[in-house]
Amino acid sequence: MQVGKLVEQWRRARMKVGLVPTMGALHQGHLSLVSLALGEADRVIVSIFVNPSQFGRGEDLSSYPSNFDEDLKKLDEAGVHCVFFPSVDEIYPEGFSTSIHVSGLTDTLCGKYRPEHFDGVATVCSILMSIVRPDIAVFGRKDAQQLAVIRRMVDDLRLGVEIHAGDIIREPDGLAMSSRNSYLDPDERRQAPVIHSGLSRAAVLVSKGERDTERICGAVREAIAEASLATLQYLELVDPDSMKPVSKLTTPALLAVAVYFGHTRLIDNVILKP
Question: I need a labelling partner for 192 at 20 to 30 A (CA). Which of 3, 12, 41, 240 fits?
Answer without folding.
Answer: 240
